[in-house]
C-alpha cells in the first residue's frame, strides 16, 4: 500500500511518545518517593534537557550527513532500552544524575527525529504533518493515563517496568519505518553551524524560550502540584490524558485552521493563551480544578508547536532540514527544560508551587509580546526559504 509507511510511522510515534510520557509525567514522583528534595528533583529534571542540548543537534547532524533518519532512530531506541534497564539498578542522587544524562542522550532524539521524519513524510506523501504527529500525542495521552493506574498497583518505585516495555515496543516499530530520500547536497559541520548564525531564526528562538520555559516547568512539576493540592497518582494520569488528547485534536484538525493565517500568528496567539493558562493554574485551590484547565494544553502546545515547526521549516535549506528541526526542538525541550526545571525547583523550595505558576505567567507574557513585535518586523521583511 502507498501509505503503509505512514501507518508504520504513526505506530512508531505512538510508542516513542509513550516512552517519553512516563519520564515526563511520573519520574519526579519516582525521585520524590526516594526521599529527594525539591532542589535535587529540579537538578535531575534539568540534567535531561542538558543532555538533550548535546544529543539532539548531534543526531540531527548525523541524520543529514548520512541521509538516514531511520538508522539514527534505531540506534537511539537501542540506547533507551539499555539505559532504562540499567536505571533499575541505580539509587541515590548521584546515581540518578548519571543515568538521567545517559537516558536522555538517547531518549531525546527518539521523538525529535520522529517528528523530523514525519515532516518529511508528510511532504512526500501529501499528508498533513499534524495528522501524523497526532499519533505521538495519542500515545502520550493513553500511556500517561494507564501508567497512573498501573503505578497504584505496582508502586511508583517500579516505574521503570512500564517504561522498559514501551521503549522495547518503540524499538520494534522503528525497525519497520522508512526513510525519506532528500537532496544529495553534502552536509558539513560548517553548513550546519551556519543555521545557528541566522539572525531571524535566533531572534525567533529567543522569544520562544520565554514561553517554552513555562511549558517545560509545568511538564516537570504538574504531577507534584496535583499531589500538593491533595490529588493522587491516577489524577496525574487523567490530567495528562485530557491535555494531550486536546493536543491530538488540534494536530488532527490542523489542515482546517492552519492555512487561514501565517504560522507566526498562531505562535503569538498561543503565547498569550499560555500566560492566561498559568495564571488560572496558580489560582487553583483543589486538584480537580487542574483537569478542565488541561484542555488549554491542546490549544497552547498544539498550536505553538506545529506553527513554530512550520515557520522554522521555511528558514532552513532542504539538505539541513533534520538539523534545523532538532534545533527548534532542542530549544523548546532542551534549553528551556534546564531553566524551567532548575528555576522551578528553586521556586518550590523557597516560595511554593503557587508562586511558581505566577512567575510562569509573567514569562509567557514577555515571550508573547516579543513574538508580536517579531511578527511585525518579519511581515515587513518576509522570509523566503533558500
TrEMBL record:
Keywords: Cell inner membrane, Cell membrane, Membrane, Transmembrane, Transmembrane helix, Transport
Location, primary (coarse class): membrane
Residues that span the membrane, as ranges: 12-31, 43-61, 73-90, 96-114, 135-154, 160-180, 201-218, 238-258, 265-289, 295-312, 324-343, 355-374
Keyword hit for Glycoprotein: no
Database matches in Pfam families: MFS_1_like
Membrane topology, record value: Multi-pass membrane protein
Domain Major facilitator superfamily associated span(s) in chain numbering: 8-358
Compartments it resides in: Cell inner membrane
Keyword check for Protein transport: no
Protein name stated in the entry: MFS transporter
Organism lineage string: Bacteria, Bacillati, Bacillota, Bacilli, Bacillales
Amino acid at each position: 500500500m502507498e501509505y503503509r509507511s505512514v501507518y508504520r510511522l504513526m505506530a512508531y510515534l505512538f510508542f516513542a511518545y509513550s516512552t517519553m510520557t512516563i519520564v515526563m509525567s511520573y519520574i519526579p514522583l519516582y525521585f520524590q518517593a526516594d526521599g529527594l528534595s525539591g532542589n535535587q528533583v529540579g537538578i535531575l529534571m534539568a540534567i535531561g534537557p542538558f543532555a538533550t542540548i548535546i544529543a539532539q543537534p548531534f543526531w540531527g547532524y548525523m541524520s543529514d550527513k548520512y541521509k538516514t533518519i531511520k538508522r539514527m532512530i534505531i540506534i537511539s531506541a537501542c540506547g533507551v532500552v539499555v539505559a532504562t534497564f540499567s536505571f533499575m539498578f541505580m539509587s541515590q542522587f548521584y546515581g540518578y544524575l548519571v543515568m538521567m544524562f545517559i537516558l536522555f542522550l538517547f531518549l531525546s532524539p527518539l521523538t525529535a527525529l520522529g517528528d523530523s521524519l514525519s515532516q518529511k513524510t508528510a511532504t512526500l506523501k501529501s499528508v498533513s504533518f499534524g495528522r501524523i504527529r497526532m499519533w505521538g500525542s495519542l500515545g502520550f495521552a493513553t500511556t500517561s493515563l494507564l501508567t497512573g493506574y498501573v503505578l497504584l498497583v505496582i508502586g511508583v518505585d517500579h516505574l521503570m517496568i512500564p517504561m522498559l516495555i514501551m521503549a522495547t515496543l518503540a524499538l520494534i516499530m522503528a525497525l519497520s519505518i522508512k526513510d525519506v530520500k532528500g537532496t544529495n547536497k553534502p552536509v558539513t559541520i560548517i553548513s550546519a553551524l551556519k543555521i545557528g548564525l541566522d539572525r531571524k531564526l535566533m531572534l525567533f528562538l529567543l522569544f520562544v524560550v520565554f514561553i517554552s520555559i513555562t511549558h517545560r516547568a509545568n511538564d516537570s512539576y504538574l504531577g507534584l502540584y496535583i499531589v500538593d493540592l491533595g490529588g493522587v497518582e491516577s489524577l496525574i494520569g487523567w490530567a495528562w490524558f485530557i491535555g494531550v488528547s486536546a493536543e491530538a485534536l488540534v494536530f488532527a484538525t490542523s489542515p482546517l485552521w492552519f492555512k487561514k493565517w501565517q504560522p507566526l500568528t498562531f505562535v503569538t496567539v498561543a503565547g498569550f493563551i499560555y500566560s492566561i493558562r498559568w495564571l488560572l493554574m496558580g489560582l487553583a485551590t483543589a486538584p480537580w480544578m487542574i483537569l478542565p484547565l488541561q484542555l488549554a494544553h491542546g490549544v497552547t502546545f498544539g498550536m505553538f508547536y506545529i506553527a513554530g515547526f512550520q515557520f522554522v521549516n521555511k528558514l532552513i535549506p532542504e539538505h539541513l532540514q533534520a538539523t534545523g528541526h532538532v534545533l527548534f526542538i532542542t530549544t523548546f525541550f532542551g534549553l528551556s527544560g534546564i531553566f524551567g526545571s532548575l528555576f522551578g525547583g528553586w521556586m518550590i523550595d523557597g516560595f511554593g508551587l503557587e508562586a511558581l505558576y505566577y512567575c510562569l505567567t509573567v514569562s509567557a507574557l514577555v515571550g508573547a509580546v516579543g513574538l508580536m513585535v517579531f511578527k511585525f518586523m518579519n511581515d515587513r521583511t518576509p522570509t523566503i526559504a533558500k
